[in-house]
Design goal:
Rossmann fold; single chain; 7 helices; alpha/beta; binds magnesium ion; 5-stranded parallel β-sheet; binds adenosine-5'-triphosphate; globular
């Protein structure tokens, strides 16, 4: 589904953050990116979701060059990266409802209800994002990825700020996504999350950036 060849990303001062990255990720597989702070995991995820552009190399989605502007790509990739942002005056349920409807989900109400319940956001559904705790905001961001169509799920350190039951839920949910035939790409610093989601034979753990 996702094919990366010779990807490099340099920043203005010539610093090469990523060089010669090759990756292949198929449906029903998990790939976990690990490595030191500053190693380039988030940069790579941004290049793979079209938020950033590689300096060189190719990114193919279903054998076609990735173009995040096409509706097909936007329906295919659900990403929760570092840059979590919400509309300040839309409530929790309104955010999820908007996301589901914008992506043409059938029966958005029941999909949104399910996500609210699963992520423990039910009681908070009428609240504005500004009044949520940091972990509750992270749960809302994750819920957004689960109320929309997706074939490739991309998450940057999704365990951040979650409590223990949140991390346990996340691991179970990602395993279920894999079993449902999604491709799951996750950067994480959590060995236990890595172990829980990427211990299958077809799963991959990729080190990005050497030890510093
Ligand atoms: N816009 C930018 N301009 C210049 N340098 C950048 C920019 N964005 C990232 N970098 C640099 O690229 C390197 C890789 O950063 P990146 O955020 O991808 O690392 P990471 O592996 O996600 O780290 P962490 O584990 O801390 O999340 C870092 O040295 C960072 O300072
Ligand atoms: Mg990062």
């Amino acid at each position: 589904m996702l094919e990366v060849r010779g990807l490099a990303r340099c920043y203005g001062d010539g610093m090469e953050v990523l060089s010669d990255i090759d990756l292949d990720l198929d449906a029903g597989q998990v790939m976990v990116l690990v490595g030191p702070n500053g190693g380039g995991k988030s940069t790579l995820l941004r290049c793979l979701t079209g938020v950033d552009e590689p300096t060189s190399g190719t990114v193919l989605l279903d054998q076609e060059p990735l173009d995040e502007r096409t509706p097909e790509t936007r329906r295919a990739i659900a990403a929760v990266l570092d840059d979590i942002d919400f509309f300040p005056d839309l409530s929790v349920v309104e955010h999820l409802d908007l996301m589901a409807r914008a992506h043409g989900v059938e029966d958005p109400e029941s999909v949104v209800d399910e996500a609210l319940a699963e992520l423990g956001l039910w009681e908070l559904s009428g609240r504005l994002p500004g009044s949520l705790s940091s972990g509750q905001r992270r749960r809302l961001a994750l819920a957004g990825a689960f109320v929309r169509p997706r074939r490739l799920l991309v998450l940057d350190e999704p365990e951040q700020r979650l409590d223990r039951s949140g991390v346990e839920w996340l691991a179970r949910r990602l395993v279920r996504e894999k079993k449902d035939g999604l491709a799951v790409l996750v950067a994480t610093h959590s060995p236990s999350l890595q172990e829980a989601i990427a211990s299958g034979k077809r799963d991959q753990v990729v080190e990005i950036g050497g030890p510093r």
